[in-house]
Amino acid sequence: MSAWPEHALAAASHRDPYPYYLELARQGWARDQRLGLWLAASHAAASAVLACPACRVRPLDEPAPAALAGSALGETFGRWLRMSEAPIHAPLRAAAAASLAAQEDERAQRRARDLARGFLAGAAPDGARLDALVDFLPAATLASLLGWPERSLLGLSGQVAAWCRAVAADAGAAEREAGEAACLALHAELAALADAGWLARWRQEFGELGEDALRANLLGALFQSRDAGAGLLAAGIAWRCEGPWDWREAGEWRRRLRADPVLHHTRRFVAEDATLAGQPLKAGDQVLVLLAAAARDPAGPGESMDFGRGRHGCPGERLALAIARGALAALEEIGPDWRALGGGMVFRGPPNVRMRRFGAGDGR
């Protein structure tokens, strides 16, 4: 592998992208003509973009990817608060934040530990089993807290995975078809839970927003948990493979995430001319906000950026960390050969997530 990533979109899967990020952070802004993107890499530049109302999560004329137009996938995607700048964004965000805040960390951690115990029962985990756990647990734990029955969780995690693959920029027709089926199935399952869990509370407090928006955003929380939650859990396991560390402490997670982030970038679309952190931008420009570079910027405050900032910052940090701690608690009970588990690790995943995969040494 080259000593330097090919470009910013390839950096998350590079063995050591951090010298590259440090150079970009020192520049603050850079223009990648091949990608057609501005790179906001310093803490000041990244923070300015994330705070600017002119920098949107979707193009003005494309609330959902064009390939999803006319599908249940596209309709659901377009209603997510994560992808919306509409007036509905603020009350939906308040609902999501309140629901997440109501979840006790210890309860979520215990639920994740119990699900991980059941998933790993019967045999010592190898790399392939670790990968399967990482893919299963974040969405399954969140769904369990939402009210899904335990017997449905394994199928649900597969449906969420199919959904994630379907909305990827490089998804093919077969993947979009599978994702559409998964989306419809998840909507049907959520409708069956309509009188319990988060949806019942959301309907009581925010029913004026409409059932479709409420359901779409609960499903959106599952979607968000899939890759980001899996990346966080896989990182915690990888660090444990290197040696003991204090994974019970949230502060230690944040310290490690600043040094070795999981979420490496997010994209923004400029809706009107603006000057941000000294850089003039024009309407129609696209900006890749390099969160991993901003976190390590020597001129910044030295803080993790994995959960974003501003109106689109993720409100699920506490819950995501609780799920990861629960999984590590279950693994520590088994007492695996940690160094052997980490021996075949590679980086392979979505372009914006530093995803560890452990099964490469198992012939996968």
Automatic annotation (TrEMBL):
InterPro entries found in the cross-reference section: Cyt_P450_CS, Cyt_P450_sf
Family from the record: Belongs to the cytochrome P450 family.
Source organism of this protein record: Chromobacterium phragmitis
Protein name: Cytochrome
Domain of life per record: Bacteria
